[in-house]
Specification:
The protein has about 550 residues and is mainly α. It is built from 27 helices and six strands. It has a four-stranded mixed beta sheet. Strands 1-2 form a two-stranded antiparallel ribbon. Strand 5 and strand 6 form a beta hairpin.
């Protein structure tokens, strides 16, 4: 135990009082796996069952996932990120990592599913062990199972295994590992834990920009918390930059130059100022009235309950609040906005009890970490959007803070939380069953199988059949609309840079750049959705018609070079 850690005795006493074991001694015990194997095995069994059930049914063709697999394939073929292809993600690690995987494993959807599954399992076990630092085995297990069903496995875009972005899930797992290691350092004062924690924080920062805030927070937190030597702090800080520097070196060795970075930065600067992107952030990060309405509603409900049960004991009041929330969740079916207020509530809970929490270094750290990591969805934590990725740490922090500082009967609180989380698990299962049953028609290709709704699957199968019959593997096909997944599935290349875009990216590129690229590097085929030609892509479509002939016109337009 660290002699400088004044709160250690308090933390241990609190754990013992709540029914949790002394985690420090527990983690060092030879009987660690023997004591934990039931929970770990249960999590693994449920995970494997879901892995089978959700296989081939977590992909939507016309979504960002296509970019993930297509760009990884290009990287594996030595294409240079930010030079040969534009990517809205500033941090390159996930694409470099997936590209490296494809150099050793088959270029197949199953490879991505396997990579996502391993990472999701790391997240689940990481959350379990973080929770066990503060909570009993039962509530830690329930929280982990809740994260599995509510967050990881979802038959839509925002899942953990085949997500809209591998960057967000790789970064989350890196941050969770970093948090766990830093908690170990706080309790044991081993420098190896400290350096490893900073290393994984840097890995998270290399995947997606919102995790950069966590890395900065960790450095600041450590600087104010510990009286270590300057040498130790410099070593720890240097560990943050290992993975970012490796990524930069890899890109430069591949041929990324200053002019390429300048061109990328010009386009990216235009991209971040697009009205579409502003709307996204107004609904999540920035202060907005919708989020405020949800927060006010929850406070009003809590106030009414408090008034009605003002003379009751604290456990009774907590149980009443949970029952009301339970009922509201049932009314809203799955309640995507059920947790929308959670980051704000956790912050308020921490501020109200700041005199106590500031003395509890471990709890202070997990609370700040959860809030910082979720800042992109601070005002509106919708689990139908980004919030699905930030909820795991938030629910742990909420449970820890509420149990430690806001309830008297901690056993009753744990039972109430378990009841609520299990109910929400069943709500998630109910929704997923409905979605899985809808995805009943296969799209079978040499690079993997996807199940979609009948009409969508029929359209995609017809399109794939056309591509296979009328093109060869040397033909380059530009698919306009957000569907580069078709390039991946049909084993057809595209031109690298202007190969897919939504309205925001299209505007950022600029029509002149796009048209010049198509005139200079003429692809053999264009596949264009009618909605693209009827809306923001009219000018590009009209220019394409001058040099290409229509080969097919139904749900999509297919143009062949004259």
């Amino acid at each position: 135990m660290n002699k400088n850690c004044t709160n250690c005795k308090t933390n241990v006493a609190g754990l013992q009082e709540s029914g949790a074991i002394d985690t420090i001694k527990f983690m060092e015990s030879e009987n660690f796996l023997k004591k934990e194997y039931k929970s770990l095995l249960l999590i693994l069994v449920l995970f494997l069952i879901n892995l089978v059930l959700f296989n081939h049914k977590m992909i939507n063709v016309h979504t960002d996932f296509g970019r993930e697999v297509f760009f990884a394939k290009l990287v594996s073929q030595n294409a240079v990120l930010y030079k040969d292809m534009f990517n809205t993600f500033l941090c390159p690690f996930s694409y470099l990592f997936n590209g490296l995987i494809l150099k050793f494993l088959p270029v197949h959807l199953n490879t991505f599913y396997f990579a996502g599954a391993i990472n999701a399992l790391v997240i689940l076990y990481g959350c379990y062990f973080v929770a066990r630092k503060f909570l009993s085995r039962t509530i830690s297990t329930v929280i982990t199972v809740f994260i599995m069903y509510y967050c990881c496995f979802y038959a839509g875009l925002m899942n953990f295994l085949m997500p809209y972005s591998y960057a967000v899930v790789y970064g989350l797992s890196a941050c969770i590992i970093s948090i766990l290691l830093f908690l170990n350092y706080l309790n044991e004062n081993k420098k190896s834990y400290l350096y490893a924690s900073f290393f994984f924080a840097g890995a998270g920062a290399s995947t997606k920009y919102e995790y950069i805030l966590y890395a900065v927070m960790l450095a600041v937190f450590f600087a104010f918390l510990k009286k270590e030597s300057l040498k130790t702090y410099v070593r720890a800080l240097s560990c943050i930059f290992i993975i970012p520097l490796i990524c930069l070196a890899a890109l430069m060795l591949q041929g990324l130059g200053y002019s390429d970075l300048k061109n990328f930065c010009d386009i990216f600067s235009s991209f971040i100022h697009q009205p579409y992107l502003k709307k996204v952030y107004e609904a999540t990060f920035y202060f907005n009235t919708r989020g405020l309405v949800h927060i006010v509603r929850c406070f009003i409900i809590s106030g009414i309950i408090f008034f009605c049960f003002r003379k009751a004991s604290a456990p009774t009041m907590v149980l009443a609040m949970l029952c009301v929330l339970f009922s509201l969740s049932a009314i809203n079916y799955f309640a995507y906005d059920f947790w929308c207020f959670l980051p704000v509530v956790i912050l308020l809970m921490a501020v109200i009890k700041y005199k106590q929490i500031i003395k509890d270094t471990d709890i202070l750290f997990i609370t700040i970490s959860a809030i910082v990591i979720s800042c992109k969805s601070f005002w509106m934590l919708s689990t139908n959007f980004y919030g699905r990725y930030f909820l795991p740490l938030l629910i742990i922090a909420f449970t820890v803070v509420a149990k430690k500082y806001y309830v008297e009967n901690q056993k009753l609180f744990e039972k109430s939380m378990c009841f609520l989380l299990i109910f929400l698990c069943f709500a998630a299962i109910r929704l997923n069953i409905a979605l899985l049953l809808m995805k009943n028609t296969p799209i079978i290709t040499n690079r993997g199988t996807i199940y979609e709704q009948k009409q969508t699957a029929q359209e995609i199968n017809s399109l794939i059949e056309f591509i296979q019959q009328h093109t060869n593997e040397q033909d380059r096909i530009v698919i306009l609309g957000n569907a580069p997944l078709l390039n991946f599935l049909t084993q057809r290349n595209s031109i690298n840079y202007y190969n897919h875009f939504d309205e925001a990216i299209y505007t950022a590129y600029g029509e002149n750049r796009i048209l010049q690229a198509y005139k200079t590097d003429k692809p053999e085929f264009f596949i264009i959705t009618k909605s693209f030609c009827d809306s923001y892509g009219k000018v590009v479509c009209n220019e394409i018609k001058k040099s290409y002939q229509i080969k097919r016109s139904d749900s999509v337009l297919i143009f062949e070079k004259i």
